[in-house]
Amino acid sequence: MKGLSTKSLSFAYDDVPIIRDLNLVIPTGQISALVGANGCGKSTLLRGLARLLKPFSGQIYLDGTSIFQLSTREVAQQLGILPQGPVAPEGLTVRDLVAQGRYPYQNWLQQWSAKDEKIVQQALLITDLLELADRPLDTLSGGQRQRAWIAMALAQDTDILLLDEPTTFLDLAHQLEVLDLLYELNQNQGRTIVMVLHDLNQACSYADYLVAIKNGRIYAAGEPKLVMSEQMVQEVFELECHIIPDPILGTPMCVPIGRKAKLTSSQTTNFSSKFQIESNHPL
Predict the structure, then answer these.
(1) What range does the record give for the signal peptide (predicted)?
(2) What is the pLDDT of residue 271?
(3) How are beta strands 160-164 and 79-82 bridged, if at all?
(4) Which domain holds residue 125?
(5) Where are the alpha helices (DSSP H) in 100-139?
(6) Would you say residue 175 lies in a domain?
(7) What pLDDT score was predicted for residue 275?
(8) How far is residue 214's CA from residue 40's CA, in Å, rounded to a whole number?
(9) Which residues of the chain are modeled with pLDDT < 70?
């Protein structure tokens, strides 16, 4: 089987189960989003898929082969990961960071080549960072830095990209900037992208495949229109909401109902009832 999949996969920290007996097939050539409440196991699953964690039990398959039968170099040449909150050495330039994506292809027989240089240039071009290539990473805006990390992942030249909360700590404009970039990579290059997202509406807008996780298990998986429901949000996030169509994309849009909304609704109902009674019984 091509792509990334798991069978009866479990992870645990200090014998405390985090991911439990999970079976998942990541759709090849599509964007998948992992969603769920804090602590449900999203990031653990993503790190596990990248072979950064050793499973308690079960298997992860990369193109039909157990990922644990592959060398670190082979995995890095097929699968790129952007962890949450990556940190680079002080003073590192954008170009230096992106060039690190070519390390899986370097050895004592094969040093830096014209092909490596070309791929780094392409990664900078795709992420619109050519003009910033010689700038220190720590002088960039949040959105620019995130693009630089994505460029490094692109320089690995892998078919699969795993991203852990790529929009965290970014303002709304920069969030959309990063998500649009990932969407274009998927559409133009056919990259398989798996990302952890907190914003349900962004997940529905950009993902082809939605995986809702509750307590380390898959609650539901499929197209956003099939997974995103008021019942799912209630049971996975313990939150009341209304699901309506996005007015532009037509994708499911979650409108949360907090205590203020309930109180306002109650006050409006009481006012309407009082007004109707007074109208029917004028002085």
Answers:
(1) none
(2) 45
(3) parallel
(4) 4-232
(5) 114-126
(6) yes
(7) 44
(8) 6
(9) 1-2, 108-110, 265-283
In a domain, 246, yes or no: no
Please give the pLDDT value at position 276: 55
The CATH number of whichever domain residue 200 belongs to comes to 3.40.50.300
How wide is the angle at C-alpha 228 spanned by C-alphas 224 and 229, nearest 5°? 155
User: What is the number of domains present in the chain?
Assistant: 1
Strand partners, 210: 33, 222
pLDDT for residue 31:
97
Strands (E), 165-277: 192-196, 209-214, 217-222, 241-245, 252-256
Return left, alpha or beta for 128; rule: phi > 0 is left, psi -120 to 50 is alpha, else beta. left
Domain assignment present for residue 97? The answer is: yes
pTM (2 d.p.): 0.85
Q: Is 32 helix (H, G, I), strand (E, B) or coil?
A: strand
Q: What is the pLDDT of residues 88-109, one digit of tens each?
A: 888 899 999 999 989 888 776 6
271 domain-assigned: no
Whole-angstrom Cα distance, residue 76 to residue 101?
9
